[in-house]
Amino acid sequence: MTRLDVLGFWFSPDAPSELPLPQRLVRGLGADERAAVLAYLRAGTVLVTFPDPSFCRFACGERAMGTRDLTDGRWVWPEGLAHYVERHDVRLPPTFTAHAVEANGVVAPFRAPKPRFGLYDRSAWLAWGRAERACLDLAGFELPDPEVRERIAADLGALPYEHILLCNGATREVVLDVGGGALELRQVKPGAPPPRRFAGWHEWPVSGARASSPSVAHPPTKPGRGVPMAEFLAALRSKQERDEPKP
Ligand SMILES: [Zn+2]
Asked: In Å, how far are 8, 146, 199 from 25, measured between CA atoms?
């Protein structure tokens, strides 16, 4: 069964995950490589169109990041990925870069696969991101569903915070948005150690100690019966990208 390796799927502060931060992948492409990569990225075929546009994680003010995923039959990437390479000098995995250079930036004819659940494979992208130390160590944490969120809120009581971002069922740790971009890591049980504060995700420890930590689970984890891939992904993505970071 064909699967497409994803490229350019980034960490989003509104739905924190182990996806890489592009800020940690700046530089590394030569001028020729960059030209070939850019041409190749722009030559992909549209696979899926989403209702909401993506946003630049560098918060540079670019609005035209696109709403579509493009493919060459082997990789799949958001059309805004070219912006990261062109404007922010972000590098991409060497297998892809070498392929784009060898192909002179031209995508060879291919038959586009039908969008379906399970088509996108994040494993190689995550493995490369971790090896480049561009992923946060969020192993064991997941986005709480509304029911879990409610239980955590009850446990937290009158503590001041803005949002519950992540929870870890095994350790009973929660990550709270405490305003102004700051985070608090707190264990919700009697006699817990004092919470840890982070000025932002940039201070969070980077993944890398463990070679293959499990991915953060995102609800919904699978599409309902009969939900087309596009609809499913759209729901997932609009959830992840609901709020644009304030510049
Ligand atoms: Zn930008």
From this structure: 11, 34, 21
